[in-house]
Amino acid sequence: MVGRRRRPARVPGLGLAKIAKSVGLRKAAELGIADAYTTNDEVNEPMLVFNVWLGYKPCAQQ
């Protein structure tokens, strides 16, 4: 019998989105981009909190 461990499709809490977003913003700033906009589902509280930490401010709602 041969077995394999499968990784779960989604593993919350790894912080991959945080890393990608902060690296992207840093690169944009290095290129002289001063403003950035993002969208998130209103129910995605962890990402909304992170966006506030990055300095994003609400500008519109759907």
Describe this structure in words.
The chain is an all-alpha fold and 62 residues long. It has a domain at 36-62. It is built from two helices and no strands. It has helices at 16-30, 45-54. It is flat. The mean pLDDT is 83.
Quick description:
This protein has 62 residues and is an all-alpha fold. 40% of the residues lie in helices and 0% in strands. It contains 2 helices and no strands.
Low-confidence stretches: none
- Total of helices: 2
Q: Please, what is the average pLDDT? A: 83
Strand content: under 5%
Q: For this entry, what is the oligomeric state of its chains?
A: single chain
> What is the terminal separation in angstroms?
53 Å
Number of strands: 0
What is the rounded Rg? 16 Å
Query: Helix proportion of residues, in percent?
Result: 40-55%
Order of helices and strands: HH
Outline, from the CA principal axes? flat
Major β-sheet, in short?
A: none
Q: Give the helix/strand class.
A: mainly alpha
